[in-house]
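Many introductory courses stop at the sequence. We go one step further.
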Amino acid sequence: MDMESILLDINISIPLGLIVNELVSNCMKYAFPDGREGIINIKLKSNNGKNTLIVSDNGIGLSSDIEFKYTDSLGLQLINSLTSQIDIEIELDISHGTEFKIKFNALEYK
């Protein structure tokens, strides 16, 4: 893990926690078949109120024929539902294992 200390509103932190849980669970279930060893990375960075959360692995990678935004997978449907609820952007890179990059803005506290 490579995490910066960032204050998050509870309305963002709970859905993000659920998304991270689902992505890490998927890594553990699918990225390393047949007892293969690997690495799961979680990074959280902030740059002037623009936050980026990355969950990645060096496993076998998500199949290139899967469109993660339009899938029958219950886990990926949950991730897509949560991202739309809190208005964040999510990108998928399968060039080296699987990497989900989640971008969101920090809320201003009053």
